[in-house]
Amino acid sequence: NAGVTQTPKFQVLKTGQSMTLQCAQDMNHNSMYWYRQDPGMGLRLIYYSASEGTTDKGEVPNGYNVSRLNKREFSLRLESAAPSQTSVYFCASSERGGSNYGYTFGSGTRLTVV
Amino acid sequence: QKEVEQNSGPLSVPEGAIASLNCTYSDRGSQSFFWYRQYSGKSPELIMSIYSNGDKEDGRFTAQLNKASQYVSLLIRDSQPSDSATYLCAVNQYNFNKFYFGSGTKLNVKP
To answer: Which residue of A has its CA nearest to B46?
Structure first.
């Protein structure tokens, strides 16, 4: 049982380049999330998908887009990468929203924008 | 004011001691509270959840919630070097899909 799988694990981009971070879960969870983690800032929610077919903005959505491709997959796209987007990105899933259930996190993507 | 505040630490305790980690939150409407452990370079993993005032115990871990004072704490009894990690507090507000995380407290357990 893989849980939440993220690819790639590491990535270096030049300013202005685009890329898509992939996330897939095999736990039949309804809700999926994208967070970024920066030193001293904790985890900040970028976008989430409460259920298949829906997406909503979190705290820091600017510069990102998401796609909930199906129940398993939730991708995060950076259209024009900026150095401020250098961070560790975590995908997470939850069985039925976060209120009474914790998250299961993927292993993270360490992104550097130069 | 940040939604969730934690002392960044590091908090150093000797092996076998009780480690006490604290978290305060700003929104009185918060409903669910979680503690995650994150080892360096790894992803967070859920260790405790609490929803009602009082204490909740799970093995060596005890979560304490006081909604009137807007704080939640985590006690780790008989601390082990393997408990050395960053502990993140997460608080859910009125929107069940939005959790706010504290920046974490780094715990060092010295052998």
So the answer is: A102
Give pLDDT tens digits for B20-79: 999 999 988 888 899 999 999 999 999 999 999 999 999 999 999 999 999 999 999 999
Under 8 Å between Cβ of A32 and B97: no
Using the beta-carbon criterion (under 8 Å), do A58 and B4 form an inter-chain contact?
Answer: no
Distance of CA A65 to the CA centre of its chain: 10
Is some CB atom of chain B closer than 8 A to the CB atom of A45?
yes
Collapsing DSSP to helix, strand or coil, B92 comes out as strand
Cα(A92)–Cα(A49) distance, rounded to whole angstroms?
Answer: 10
Residues near B41 by Cβ (< 8 Å), separated by ≥ 6?
Answer: none
**C-alpha span between A77 and A17 (Å, rounded):** 11
A72 reaches B (C-beta below 8 A)? no
Residue of A nearest to B52 (CA): A100
pLDDT in tens, A54-104: 999 998 999 999 999 899 999 999 999 999 999 999 999 987 655 567 789
Task: Name every chain A residue with its beta carbon within 8 A of the beta carbon of B102.
Answer: 42
**Pairwise CB contact (< 8 Å): B43 & A58:** no
Q: Which residues contact A95 (CB under 8 A, 6 or more apart)?
A: A27, A29, A30, A31, A101
Most B-contacting residue of A105, A107, A110 (CB-CB within 10 A), to test interface: A105
